[in-house]
Nucleoside triphosphate pyrophosphohydrolase (Roseovarius lutimaris), 271 residues
Amino acid sequence: MADDTLIHDPQGGLPRLIAIMRALRDPVTGCPWDIEQDFASIAPYTIEEAYEVADAIERADWGELRGELGDLLLQVIFHAQIAEDRGLFDVHDVAKAISDKMVARHPHVFGEESRDKSAEQQTRDWEAIKAAERAAQAQTGTLDGVALGLPALLRAVKLQKRAARVGFDWPEISQVLGKITEEVGELQEAAADLPQDKIEEEFGDLLFVMANLARHMNLCPEAALRGANAKFTRRFGRVEALLAEQGKSPAQSDLAEMDALWDRAKSEERR
């Protein structure tokens, strides 16, 4: 079959990948696991692959980035094939939709608008075009269209950015810091005598304001937390290595010793 020839062609490019996914989803000859999947079951893998792309970039591992981008591309093709199987749309419709959007959102490149404007003005124009698109989709609320499936910290920042556009925002970082102090106090009070669901609510409020602080400081809270995770992993690995030099494991140590080794690991990094 022609499709089999394409599937086994190393130079088949994107059409080859589309053919592979179509074959995997074939209800008669395809893979039982792939056939059983739907949008909801695949969505977690899509999110995971996006994070693995970000991880490869953060580590500057360009060889791995190539593979991770392929994994992410596969997710797009998988969702498009599920949609095609259901008669909703296909991968070509996906490509057309994003191409149309990019052309419409860049009139200074593909239209008659002047490119002689600052990046800040281009950002304002981009947001105005997006607002018009939301209005055309009957998304009239300020917060309409902020995806529910985003990581919580990222969604918090996007919600806050939307609210800030209509003036619902603290003008000074000092006010955000004051709110953090207030939320810490409320969390402490909740932890003292309130049920777990109320403690969780207050903790969520604190995280939400921390995300707001990141936005005011032009930081990405997701990236900052990934960096903190990487630092913790690196330093704790050093603690384990130092313990191993003594013939010990963390389970054979105690907090005081590991804390001292942690301080040593920090000191070594600062040299």
